[in-house]
């Protein structure tokens, strides 16, 4: 590897980025060298600091460089509402809607016994503790609408219902026709579901 | 800016990469944090070293971290042949064909008087010196087939022809139908050119 030039090493290392192959990596390397060395140095420092310092929030397991993430530390957020998601990217997606003011809990995956991912790996003990220690009244299970996501949702739901002396409402994200979606191109399972769950006008 | 989290800073700085917008940057950041922190640290180090150490070859002006690039320093390369290209990426493209064994000279641009890019900016003095100091017999002008590229080619050609006591052949890359190209979809200027320059079988 020592015989490779710095440029070749840079092109190789850029390929660790998702969706970046050899051609794009080459284009990126030349473009940075030509036009944006300052931006590249800045990226280098951000990458190093982020990889070294970003860990998980003690409470919700979201990515953060401090002990408590900004959402958990924010006393204005409603701690009667808890939204359970599979990944930190899901939090970003929900925050972008600006229509949720509760707290979160990140599973960092979903139940997948075949891959050795059980309740402990997705932090269900910690979730249990979190619910016991907060005045949580509603748990919104926002796992993906896949087989694993549904299984995980079901498992969490039965776990939460077993908590004694507490009445906690369990909810799940609504499923149906996406906004702007054309019926013609919608898969039949989603269409059947939205027909079954139709709402009165 | 100090109030931004490290993750937000990372997502912003990833957008200095060409073709990477907010969504891709977010996906990259999460993917690196989730699955490839080692690769990201490696990328960080490569970026820093490359931006700090990569300069231009003293002889051909290609990107290199040493004084003479590997091609200029290679005594097996034919120094009777000199190929003039606009950018280091063009060298990579020609090297990938494995059908050229001569040396290179990189203009790092093309003549563009309106943008203040004249003969000095594209290193024509240095090119002149290079030709005088080497046994160069053929100069292949491989600038782009654009108006600026053609102007630059013409300017270099007349400059080289003014060199005294030397017979230097000037050539230009062949133009015509690309391999796999369908005539139906080829632009008419290229088609007219390949008709005018037809070869006997």
Summed up, the domain count of chain A is 2
Oligomer: homodimer
Main sheet specs of chain A = 4 strands, parallel
Radius of gyration of chain A using CA atoms only: 22 Å
Topology:
2 copies of one chain form a homodimer.
Chain A: H1 6-14, H2 22-35, H3 37-53, E1 55-56, E2 63-64, E3 78-85, H4 88-97, E4 102-106, H5 124-133, E5 138-141, H6 147-161, E6 169-172, H7 188-196
Parallel strand pairs in A: 3-4, 3-5, 5-6
Antiparallel strand pairs in A: 1-2
Helix pairs in contact in A: 1-2
Walk me through this protein's architecture.
The structure is a homodimer of 201-residue chains. A four-stranded parallel beta sheet of chain A has the order 4-3-5-6. In chain A, strands 1-2 form a two-stranded antiparallel ribbon. By secondary structure, the first copy, chain A, is of the alpha/beta class. In chain A, helix 1 crosses helix 2 (22-35). Chain A is globular and about 65 Å long. Chain A has two domains: 6-53, Helicase, Ruva Protein, domain 3 (Orthogonal Bundle); 63-200, Dna Topoisomerase Vi A Subunit, Chain: A, domain 2. In chain A, strand 5, helix 6 and strand 6 form a beta-alpha-beta unit. Helices cover 42% and strands 12% of the residues of chain A. Chains A and B meet through helix 1, helix 2, helix 3, strand 2 and helix 4 of A and helix 1, helix 2, helix 3, strand 2 and helix 4 of B.
């Amino acid at each position: 590897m020592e015989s490779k030039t710095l440029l070749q090493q840079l092109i190789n290392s850029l390929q660790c980025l998702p969706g970046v192959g050899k051609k794009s990596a080459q284009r990126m390397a030349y473009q940075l060298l030509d036009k944006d060395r300052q931006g590249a140095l800045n990226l280098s420092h951000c990458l190093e600091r982020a990889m070294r310092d970003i860990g998980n929030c003690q409470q919700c397991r979201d990515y953060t460089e401090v002990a408590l993430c900004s959402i958990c530390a924010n006393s204005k957020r409603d701690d009667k509402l808890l939204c359970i998601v599979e990944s930190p990217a899901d939090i970003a997606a929900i925050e972008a809607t600006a229509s949720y003011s509760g707290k979160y809990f990140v599973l960092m995956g979903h139940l997948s016994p075949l891959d050795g991912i059980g309740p402990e790996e997705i932090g269900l003990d910690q979730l249990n503790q979190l619910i016991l220690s907060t005045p949580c009244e509603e748990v919104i299970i926002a796992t993906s609408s896949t087989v694993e996501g549904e299984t995980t949702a079901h498992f969490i739901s039965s776990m939460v219902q077993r908590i004694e002396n507490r009445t906690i409402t369990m909810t799940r994200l609504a499923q149906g026709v996406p906004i702007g979606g054309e019926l013609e191109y919608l898969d039949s399972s989603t269409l059947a579901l939205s027909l079954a769950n139709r709402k009165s006008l």
